[in-house]
Amino acid sequence: MDDREHLEAEVSYYDPTRQPASPSRRHFLKTAGASGLAVAAAPALSSVSYAGSPDDPDTQTDAPPAEGARRITLTVNGRRHQLDVAPNVILLDALRHGLQLTGTKKGCDHGQCGACTILVNGTSINSCLSLAVTHDGDEITTVEGLEKGGQQHPLQQAFLEHDAYQCGYCTAGQMMSALAVLQDDDIGTSDADVREAMSGNICRCGAYKNIVAAIQSARGAVQGGKA
Question: Cross-referenced Pfam families, in alphabetical order (predicted)?
């Protein structure tokens, strides 16, 4: 599913010469008509803007954020970014639409499939369940951050070698969860342990056997400090 059909959030880079358009009364009433809950979290009223130049993350602007927005700083894949986000913007949308990091996928949007898994300060989370404003100052790793200097991460290579995907939609989340699993000393090393730890990531194509094989294959490289 095209997530722009799934989410009608207004997302744009920060432009100090242009004020963000307000949703029309008609659109607001149409959105609010669904339910009281929809009003509280209506994505049509959400916004994400890049504060500064998207081509140079180190640039900053003296202009204040738009009314109702909050300026946050995220270090994503080693690069520092400033974003102006509305209070109801989820971290997944801030990454996909604010930073154009579309490797992280939107699946169920309810924290049940794991397609949106990323690492925040080294811990795996479902980014569809977490508000962006709660991560001001955090360090985030997405699937785009696995590759270093043109060299594939051992997990990426292992997923290729073991055919651990079919349609590929869940693959980014699978790899990010797998990285967290391999870096957690409290999780056992057996196939059963891996399956249990990875149970929050759904593969609708059913490539689970190959996914476990890929994770086990990459274990030595990841835990040996080569990744």
Answer: Fer2 (PF00111), Fer2_2 (PF01799)
